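comment on this one:
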Amino acid sequence: MNPHSVFLRNECVLPEGVDPLREPVGQRWMHLKEIQASVFDAMIRQAGWYSTWMPGACSRRAFGFTPERATRRALKRALNAIPREFNAAELDSVKVSRFPGFCKATIVLNPREIQQRSSVGNRGRQEPQNGYATYAGLPKV
């Protein structure tokens, strides 16, 4: 697992012809093997869809007897903390600290939205009439 790895919710729909190799992570997520976010983003955009990075990084930490175990636990916790309205996440960073007898891992994920339409954060709401889009559901300033 490298920085800028991509994770998709199991129910995430992808454009036709985009079918990357995936491996399960927990019960609700899949890790895209060997594809970094920039490459995946290009694949999505080439298919005419949108892949949008969202604000609001999610950071979680966990402990384990090995760095791998601590990292796996922190990843699952961080993925479970991604709000339901986002169907993907990008790994920003992994930091592992070793202590006598245990390890601590901290994972930072950035939510992403993969969709066929270009509007972001407006599910169930009308598009703004003034040409200004809201960003991830936040009011414009």
